């Protein structure tokens, strides 16, 4: 199995990106998206329009209340999902729980949203950051900037962005499309950041 781990601030867009990645992967292979932390904003069952329709969550399986098949929900033909605990603090997930879960699953791709990265031995980590935390150190294999302002210019931060550990996938403006980000990710390709031309630099200098 190929494992993806999506890291980022709690917001609706992070869940949407995780679901869009899973949707894309499931076009060719059997895929499962797994949420492990309940959000007060937006959860995976909201994306699939099944809020309030699902009784059992991932922690019910870890606690031994139900079997693995009971917590797996159908989204599309080759795409399933497991929801996060319906009550915060219901159970503290440990690595042994994830090991047990992985041992019972037979999917080509797993997409985890919000999980301690040490719980997964082999994974691809995607960090989602904001324009405000470009200086942060990142541990992921890939990263992109989400909800960038309309006037964000990645060229101004080229050295900073390229110096980070992971591959830079690009940026998405508010309500923008993730198509380019997903295309770069699935093709193991970094986004090209152009240089600022000489005359443009002069214009910027006189404007400041």
Question: TL;DR of this structure?
Answer:
With 208 residues, the chain is an alpha/beta fold.
Please characterize this protein's 3D structure.
There is one protein chain. This protein has 208 residues and is of the alpha/beta class. It is built from eight helices and eight strands. The chain has an eight-stranded mixed β-sheet with strand order 3-4-2-5-1-6-7-8. It starts with a strand and ends with a helix. The mean pLDDT is 93.
> Could you give the order of the helices and strands?
EHEHHHEEHEEEHEHH
* Helical amount: 25-40%
Rg for CA atoms: 19 Å
The fraction of residues assigned to DSSP E strands is: 15-25%
Distance between the termini: 52 Å
Globular, elongated, flat, extended or rod-shaped: what is the shape?
elongated
């Amino acid at each position: 199995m190929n494992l993806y781990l999506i890291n980022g601030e709690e917001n609706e867009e992070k869940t949407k990106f995780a679901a869009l990645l899973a949707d894309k992967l499931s076009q060719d292979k059997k895929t499962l998206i797994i949420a492990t932390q309940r959000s007060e904003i937006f959860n995976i069952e909201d994306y699939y329009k099944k809020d309030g329709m699902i009784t059992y969550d991932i922690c019910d399986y870890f606690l031994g209340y139900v079997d693995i098949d009971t917590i797996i929900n159908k989204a599309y033909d080759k795409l399933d999902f497991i929801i996060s605990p319906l009550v915060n603090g219901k159970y503290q997930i440990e690595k042994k729980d994830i090991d047990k879960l992985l041992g019972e699953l037979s999917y080509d791709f797993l997409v985890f949203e919000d999980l301690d990265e040490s719980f997964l031995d082999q994974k691809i980590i995607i960090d989602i950051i904001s324009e405000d935390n470009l200086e942060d150190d990142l541990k992921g294999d890939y990263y992109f900037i989400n909800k960038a302002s309309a006037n964000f210019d990645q060229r101004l931060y080229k050295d900073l962005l390229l110096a980070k550990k992971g591959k830079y996938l690009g940026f998405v403006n508010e309500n923008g499309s993730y198509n380019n980000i997903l295309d770069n990710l699935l093709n193991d390709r970094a986004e090209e950041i152009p240089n600022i031309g000489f005359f443009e630099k002069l214009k910027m200098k006189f404007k400041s």
